[in-house]
Amino acid sequence: MHQNPYLTAIQSLNESEIRYVIVGGFAVVMHGLNRFTPDLNVVVDLESSHLKVALSRLRANHLSPVNEDELLSFSTSQGREEMSQQGKRWFLSLRDVQAPTFSLDLFLREPLKFEDLFSRALECSFDGVSAPVASLSDLITMKCNSTRGQDRMDCEVLRFIQEHEEELQVAAKRQGLLENTDQDVIRDYLTGLDDFASLSHSEKLSWLCHMLTHLGQFCLL
∠ CA(211), CA(213), CA(218), 5° rounding? Predict the structure, then answer.
């Protein structure tokens, strides 16, 4: 893999000066849940005058859909509506042939009101590169409104993180939480937390890229 594709996508969006918020599995990881995700789900400001610039910048950095005509469609409200009706799609997915296991997924519709999502976002820094990540409360809302199995599991753990935020900072208290839960998904989360809890946002990003690299070894182009 040529470089960190998550960071390439983030830098491309930053360079275009469009407002955006990272949601989905990447945001879940940044809030402390140690699970892998091969994609970056992003809500962009669909009303922004920088939208076409952002799409052009992403394409220049080798991130584009299989059907490149969809870049033009995504830049208009009518085009996005037509795309969302095709197979009940949620995203425009952009891929890089040099990193085939990675996907940048741009929401065709706002999952929550963008202005609210953006105003509550957490600013994360990845080796000096900043990116807005959905707040824990907004992430819980999105995950808990989904019927997808992985989202429901994420919802359970994120609610647990929100409820026990202070206790999770102390190893002895984490052990007490582990002993007192009978939920498998919470037990799995707490069991793997000790090493993961101490990682910075940059280190979590490096971990994701490392996992993606190993996944890529099993992909044929």
Answer: 100
| Domain chopping of the chain, boundaries | 5-144+199-216
Q: Are 186 and 157 in contact (CB under 8 A)?
A: yes
CA distance 176 to 183: 14
DSSP 94: E
Apex 136 CA angle, 207 and 200, nearest 5: 30
pLDDT at 20: 99
Mention every residue, 6+ apart, whose C-beta is less than 8 A from residue 100.
216, 219, 221
**What pLDDT digit, counting tens, does each position of 42-101 carry?**
999 999 999 999 999 999 999 999 888 999 999 999 999 999 988 778 999 999 878 888
**Low-confidence stretches of the chain (pLDDT beneath 50):** 1-2, 217-221
pTM here is 0.86
Which residues contact residue 17 at a Cβ distance below 8 angstroms, ignoring those fewer than 6 apart?
50, 53
Segment holding 218, helix H or strand E: none
| Cα gap 182→207, rounded to integer Å | 29
- What is the 3 state secondary structure string of 95-153? EECCEEEEEEEEECCCCCCHHHHHHCCEEEEECCEEEEECCHHHHHHHHHCCCCHHHHH
Residue 59 DSSP one-character state: H
State the fold for domain 5-144+199-216: Beta Polymerase; domain 2 (3.30.460)
